[in-house]
Amino acid sequence: MTVPKEISPSDEIKGASEVSYYTPAQPVAAGTFFENEKNLDAPAPAIFSPLKIGNMTIQNRIGVSPMCQYSADYQYEATPYHLIHYGAMLNHGPGITIVESTAVSPEGPLSPHDLGIWTDEQAQKLKQVVDYAHSQKQKIAIQLNHGGRKASGQPPFLHLEQLCDETVGGFPDKVVAPSALQFRPHGNLVKPHELELDDIKRIIRQFGDAAKRAVEISGFDALEIHGAHGYLINEFYSPISNKRTDEYGGSFENRVRFLLQVIDEISSKIDATKIPLFVRISAVENSPDPEAWSINDSKRLADLLIAKGIKLLDVSSGGNDYRQAARSGLSQEKKEPIHVPFAREIKKHVGDKLLVACVGGLEKDPFLVNEYIEKGEFDVALIGRGFLRNPGLVWTFADQLGVRLHQNLQLGWGFWPNKQQIIDLIKRTENASLEK
């Protein structure tokens, strides 16, 4: 057997300390604007400028939107699929990657193959994804959710809006909601049980416990509370799905109570000064119902979220009314991505008091997205399907905008930085660390 010679640290790039296997320590996060003569000393485009979210800074304004993969095992735990799936995108430098909807309660998954985080073992399996993100100097968040009346469904690649029964791992008898209203009358999803007060309190605690696991066991950098798309939190604040007559129903203040108590519970279980909290909402219902949640309701809610210390509002729409139209709510003078008018309207309302992210169809035109961010119409572009098609979307955007970004060392060879620039960058990084 040949014994390798002793290698001094100066002879190789050191391995990242966050993982047990060798992957080179990245001197700077991929996706960071590369300041050199190739960028002609021009400032970074707005989309590639850093952004401070609470005490966390992301290197650009392009995020991976949470997208269910329906690939967890029957314990609702992450598998190697998730490491490969998220790792491919993390390697290319999105500013923030948000892990898909992850259930906080046993009756909360959208399907039998959704991720869960109501046990320590589930959180531990997610840690491998987080550790890999950190080994690449990337920021990663998780979306915490409860499916409410839309739980126990089939993965959409099997059937859209199809109940998943016990024979294939479903739990139709345990599905709950604010009111016993079926999502679609005579549809395939089950009619839910109306939540008792004790169970409401239990689920609020489960959100808090899940947040604590996500931070203390998994190590996520930020948390997103899923309050959109017709899931439990959305079901509570919408008058379409909430017909309660107690303190959780009726008035606007009562209907948003559940979400606000979830935020309070999470804030009591983690250090919210270190871990920024996001909330995703359906800014409008896209519904023909005159009582449907409106953009003005979202503005009122945004004010309450600011008071609760939420750092970023993730703007989507719809999902809570089977009658929803493709486009509704605000009039549009020009055709643009579906949620931009809602994000713009909310951002105009909250100003600098709350960061606003927009989602939906933003992968098509980086020049337009950069213009939205430059004008302050929203702060972060969250992209889903674009990253599924192209995990290197951030790099593609940079090419289209004519600028260069730092790349993961393994992927950047033959492009930039060149070898000497990498060596110089590593030395500067090490010297800066020593000076601290």
Tell me what the structure shows.
- Helices cover about 30% and strands about 15% of the residues.
- It is globular and about 65 Å long.
- The two termini are about 45 Å apart.
- Helix 1 (about 80-90) runs parallel beside helix 2.
- By secondary structure, the chain is α/β, with parallel strands linked by helices.
- The chain has one domain (about 20-430): Aldolase class I (TIM Barrel, Alpha-Beta Barrel).
- The strands form three sheets. Strands 3-4-6-9-10-11-12-13 form an eight-stranded parallel beta barrel, surrounded by five helices. A two-stranded antiparallel sheet has the order 1-2. A two-stranded parallel sheet has the order 7-8.
- Strand 3 (about 60-65), helix 1 and strand 4 form a beta-alpha-beta unit.
Low-confidence stretches: 1-11
What would CATH call the architecture? Answer: Alpha-Beta Barrel
Main sheet overview: 8 strands, parallel, barrel
Which series of helices and strands comes N to C?
EEEHEEHEEEHEHHHEHEHEHEHHHH
Fraction of residues in β-strands: 5-15%
C-alpha-based Rg, rounded = 22 Å
Overall number of domains: 1
Structural class: alpha/beta
Range of helix content: 25-40%
CATH superfamily: Aldolase class I
Query: How do the strands of the widest beta sheet line up side by side?
Result: 3-4-6-9-10-11-12-13
Overall pLDDT score: 90
CATH topology descriptor: TIM Barrel
Query: How far is it from the N-terminal to the C-terminal residue, by CA?
Result: 43 Å
3D shape: globular
CATH class bucket = Alpha Beta
Keywords: Flavoprotein, FMN, NADP, Oxidoreductase
Cofactor: FMN
Pfam families: Oxidored_FMN
Organism: Candida oxycetoniae
